Amino acid sequence: MPPGSKRLRQSYDPITLDPAEGLEAALRPGDKAGRDAHLSPRRFHSHGVARKQPGSRRITLVAARSAISKVHSAVYLWFGDLVTPVWWEDVWLKEGFAHFFEYVGTDFLFPKWNMEKQRFLTDVLHEVMLLDGLSSSHPISQEVEQATDINRVFDWIAYKKVTNRFSFSPSHDAFFQLPLRFKVSSPCRLQGAALIRMLANVMGQPLFQKGLNDYLLSHMYSNAARDDLWSKLSQAMRSEGRDINIGEMMDRWTLQMGYPVVTISKNQSEQLPTHYITVSQEHFLYAQEVRGNNSLQWQVPLTVAVGNGSALSAERLIWINNKTETHRVGQMDDSTWLLGNINQTGYFRVNYDLQNWKLLIQQLHTSPQIISVGNRAGLIDDAFNLARIPPNIRDIVYCTGVSLMDEDVWEFIWMKFHSTGAISEKKILLEALTCSDNTFLLNRLLNLSLSSDLVPEQDVIDVIIHVGRNPQGRSLAWRYFREKWDVLNARYGEALFMNSKLISGVTEFLNTERELNESKIRVPSDPCRTNLMLSDQRL
Fold it and tell me: Is it true that the peptide bond before 260 is cis, omega within 30 degrees of 0?
């Protein structure tokens, strides 16, 4: 048997009934096959799991695809064939386990890919939370009473196809950039995998594996419902003195739509010391208008750690069962910050009070390595989704961003202006470029607008006017208008509306005697009396 095949089989030894028999069939050299969903010998080209050459550090594209496909198919043997869901409402278990172990199993084969701790976050968790935050989402487990209901289980939200790409960093010498695309189901498979991952981290790997083994042994070659699985996992917990009702916990996540956002705040009450925090939960939805229904609650396994400029404490598990609770954590002062949902093992978002966000941002600027890559990914994803801006005010956001940030942001908006095909978006981006506080960039934009074809001719006047409305660009626009008047008048002089718009816009904020005299010298030389009249009206 090729070495890759042996390693794949070994990765499942702790959690399978008869892994040798199942995986020998799955990895036997033979015909090509897909992801079979029925109990029969699997035959693949097993060389795809092995290295390209003995001792080689380069992993082939075939190996990547093959490993994922074989792990997925192998898990179907246990959670689809050996034990089959008793009814359609529990199909997500089979799909969720298959997708969860794709990452766990492939991570065992190729640890440097960081499949479980990093790729799972971007490929699975962030993807499904984006969909599950919509008001059109639904519980992952749905009742099926007649044949026509089956389509509802596999509707667009339950089995939507999305494409992901591996983009491993070339700086890692163990692998190279892989143009690998594979399809996954969302959120039937994605959400199921995310919930199973959360449960596995709550229980711990040994107890989780023990519960799965008991479940498979008790129901092998038969049917089982999700409650049967929850029961075996609860028994595994009680065997170690941990009395957690897995069924009660998981029903909140599988029978309710969506997920919560958990808000953590340092306690400001004078009656409690500084090592207490206040934690609240509410249903997370992107749509503001439907956020009024706040009756949903979850049993949230929140992990929390306390950090400062040089260290991060060990994580602590806190159960959040109510809308708002107060909990004790490690000693804190004004310089310590809180970090919740460590490594994003939980299926929820985390928000903080403003001061804690400021401390986290400062930490990321000064010493980011204290916060792990997974936690940093979680902070970024949560921040962007919690602060999502409605599209109808994006012009304000673009302008504010350009005015507050550096030249790189200006260049980014400039490139977006050229790459977008939407006329309305082009106008918003071009106007945002005039919001910069950097006079060099404003002057550059003015010169580019008139002396090149990079800015559409009909938008040149808008550029000059908006630069003039910027306090940092007022004098620039006025000087540019005077220096380029002959060119501007030659181009737009016959278009009275355009010319009047330009003069009105540029002279709108003139308020000094010097500017008054400059305008009288410049405009009367123009033979067009309309321009003179407009200038007089403005002045």
Answer: no
Residue 72 structure tokens: 């997925």
105 & 30 share domain? yes
Residues 131 and 15 in one domain: yes
Total-model pTM: 0.74
- Predicted pLDDT at 237: 94
415 and 503 part of one domain: yes
Q: Enumerate the H helices of 182-225 as residue ranges.
A: 188-203, 205-219
User: Mean per-residue pLDDT for 477-491?
Assistant: 85
The partner residues of 28 in beta bridges, in order of sequence, read 43
Quick check: 23 and 74 in contact, CB under 8 A?
A: yes
368 and 451 share one domain: no
pLDDT, tens digit, 9 for 90 and up, residues 235-259: 999 999 998 999 999 999 999 999 9
Alpha-carbon distance of 2 to 513, in angstroms, equals 88
Structure tokens belonging to residue 167: 């983009």
Q: End of a domain among 358, 386, 414? A: 386
- Contacts for 266 with CB less than 8 Å, ≥ 6 apart: 274, 277, 278, 332, 338, 353, 355, 356
Asked whether residue 432 is assigned to any structural domain, the reply reads yes
Helix (H, G, I), strand (E, B) or coil at 261: strand
Q: What is the pLDDT of residues 343-366, one digit of tens each?
A: 999 999 999 999 999 999 999 999
Range of the domain at 181: 3-141+150-203
